[in-house]
C-alpha cells in the first residue's frame, strides 16, 4: 500500500512538472511575465531605450518611438524639414512680422522662456546664433572664431522674444532658437502620456540621459536608476536611486566635448560669452515629476553654479538634485535623503 502511494505521488509530481513545461513552451511570455518588453533605437541624436513591464504589446514600443520621430521633425535645429529649422531660417509662414508655429512648438517655447527667466539668462533658448557655430558631434574639433562669437552675442537674449498664442516674434533680425537643452524632456513627457493613455502603468523611458519612470515595477518595488559616473562608460554609475513615477535628468560636461590645443570644450554654453561654462561643476542631476522640468532645471542649475543652483533647487517644491563637482564629490539638495533612497554602488 505504501509503495502504491509513493508511485501515485511520483506520477502526480511528474504530471505537474510536464504541464508546467508545456505551458512555458506554449506561453513563454506569460511564464516570464516579470521581464519587460524592450526596444532600443538611435533617435534624437542619442540612444533611446523603452521598457514596458505590464504589457506584451510591442506595437506600443513602435508607436512610442514614432513619437520621437514626430518631435524631431518639430524641434531639430539641424534637420532641414523641421519646424525649428524653418523658423531659424525665416521660411515659416508670417503674419505681420510674427511667425506662426504649432501648438507643441509654442508649448516648448513657453517652457524655454520660463527657464530663461528663472536663470536670469544663464539658460537661454535664443542661444542658437552662437551654439550653431559649435559642433560637438563630429570629430573636426573646430573652435569658433572669437570675433564671430562676439558679433553674434547681441542676438542672444530671451527678452527679445515675444510669444502670443501660436505667434512668435523676434525683436532683432538674425535671432534663432535652440531647444537642445529642453526638447528631450518634453518628448519623454509626451511618450509617458501616450503610454498611460494605452493603459501602461509600469515602464521606463530612457532618452539618453533623460530617464522617466511610469509607476513602479509590477511587484511594487521601485526602479533603480543610475547616475552615470562622469567620463566613464555609460554603464558605470557613481550613484543609484530608487525611483517611483518620477523623472531623472542629468546634464554634464562629459556628454559631448572635445579637447584641442590643451583646452577642454563642452556643449553647455554660456549665453553671455558663447563659450562653455567653467564653474567647477561636472554634472547636475534633477529628480522631478516632469522630465521637461528636469531638463530645464539641470541646465539652469549648471549655469548658476553649485551655490546658486542649490539655492534655487531648495526653494522649489517636489524637486531634488545631485551636483557633482570637479573633485567628484556629490552634493545633495536639502531633504534629499528624506524623499529618496540612494543605493550603494561600491
Rg to the nearest angstrom?
Answer: 24 Å
Q: Quaternary arrangement of the chains shown?
A: single chain
Shape assignment: globular
Q: What's the arrangement of strands in the largest beta sheet? A: 1-2-7-8-11-14-15-16
Given helix and strand content, the structural type is alpha+beta
Q: Main sheet?
A: 8 strands, antiparallel
List the helices and strands and how they pair.
Layout: H1 2-26, H2 28-31, E1 37-43, E2 46-52, H3 59-75, H4 83-88, E3 94-95, E4 98-100, H5 103-118, H6 128-131, H7 146-152, E5 161-164, E6 167-170, H8 183-197, E7 202-207, E8 210-215, E9 223-228, E10 237-243, E11 247-252, E12 257-260, E13 263-266, E14 281-288, H9 291-315, E15 320-325, E16 330-332, H10 336-339, E17 341-343
Condensed summary:
This protein is α+β, with helices and mostly antiparallel strands and 346 residues long. The chain has ten helices and 17 strands.
What labels describe this entry?
single chain; 346 residues; alpha+beta; eight-stranded antiparallel β-sheet; four-stranded antiparallel β-sheet; 17 strands; 36% helix; disordered N terminus
